[in-house]
Predict the structure.
Amino acid sequence: MGKLNVDLCGIMLENPVIPASGTFGYGYEFAQWYDINRLGTFSFKGTTREPRFGNPTPRIAECPSGMLNAVGLQNPGVRAVIEEELPRMSACFHKPVMANISGFSVEEYREVAEQLSPCPQIGWLEVNISCPNVHGGGMAFGTDPKAAAEVVRAVRDVTEKPVIVKLSPNVTSIAEMARACEAAGADAISLINTLLGMRIDLRRRAPILANTMGGFSGPAVFPVALRMVWQVYDAVKIPVIGMGGISTAEDVIEMMLAGATAVEVGAANLVNPYASLEILEALPEVMERYGIKSLEEIIGGAHRT
Amino acid sequence: MQEKVFEIRENTEIAKDVWEIRLTGDTSGMDKPGQFVNVSLPGFFLRRPISVCCVKGQELTLIYKTVGKGTGTLATLREGQLNLLTGLGNGYDLERAGNAPLLIGGGVGVPPLYELARQLTARGLKVQVILGFNSSCDVFYEEQFHDLGCDVTVTTVDGSYGMKGFVTDALEGRVFTYYYTCGPMPMLKAVRQKCHGDGEFSLEERMGCGFGACMGCSCKTTGGYKRVCREGPVFRKEEILWEN
């Protein structure tokens, strides 16, 4: 086994670097600039049952060491994803891919999972119960342990593939959320989705985002994400995927020491299209600097000191 | 899209809050007028998209308005390097120009029209240009368009320079084959209403990545959802849903 390999729910990843959903589209753009097969995998744009335009613009705002987005799950709907996006993706990505799914009802999550699950390209289902930018769905399920468990059970019922639940940081107890998902049959937890935030335009004296609020991401949220990964690692036995502000190979090591089996890279891809690749390429040297022989052996390592 | 490091040569205020920055570097793949670059600024997370004003050999000229902290910081730079993503966006379609194109720019919508005028005049076309500003202190690049051999009309809203009024007030009696425009949305809407014939519009939107990954700058068009950064920023008149 290579020193960068990690096992994610029974599927071997060549390395733990995974571009996060909503920052990598379906991979096509990035595939023009580098071989995206070098990545562990990637999580494609969140999929809902119906096509969605998402929120009105502006959807983006600058923040200190980060950004706000209120895209609102723009996607062509599950049918077009299966009929158009996945075949197109197969031309540039040959590894199992992570399907990110979202919904506005338990039934919608179930239907989207049911349709995507048989697609051979898909390795994992990442269930987004944490989108802060849509009303009546997304985060509504991710802030109540009972509702979260209901979604997880509904998806669990219709797929044999690993179910990863993507959690919101906008909760009182992240450990309680993670335990509820584990008990409902989740195979892994990924976190954190964005933190709910906003900015006001001083000239217009009005919120910058048309949606008023949006999700805060970028290097500024890394310590919050790391703390939550640490807590969830302590709370559950299933693997944890760490994300939130990762922009260097050192951040990857730190996340893994906190308990992450793999990591997702989000906002960094948007300011540097080569970010995920550069993080991956820097890993061996950073591992050597800190005396790390294989990544698998450091998962949760900081809990044992 | 390419990631390139450019050297800052000059950065000067050419009108009120409007700056012209001259850079040198690898300008390959940025030959289409109407395209933009996405500029990384020290101390800021997101890049700032700025349309390309002129590309000559290794020299790249950008014009920007200081509207916030990011562009304010850009205006303080006099030397050093800038990391740019270049060759972004689709650009104007020169093939539609006909033999007498009209270019209509408002405020900082003027810069991309300069490179367009350069390339159209280089084809031997007679190019008419209407440049609209609020006041005399805002006017820039009139001589540069003149020097290309364009027929230039400047309008100011307060009448302190050129013709008093909006760019659309300078349309009367004009004969042209096609139009290209860039400026604030109210101006684009007025141009669309008052300009006969067909044309192209460059749209502006707050962007996340600028290269098509984040869906931050989406717009609804007659051909479905499009990304201003990728399928745009230039759209043909019939593609744009004007009620938005």
Q: What stands out?
A: The first helix of chain A runs from residue 28 to 31. Chain A touches chain B at residues 22-25, 29-30, 32-33, 45, 53-54, 57-67, 69, 71, 74, 208, 218-219, 267, 269-274 (CB under 8 Å). The mean pLDDT of chain A is 96.
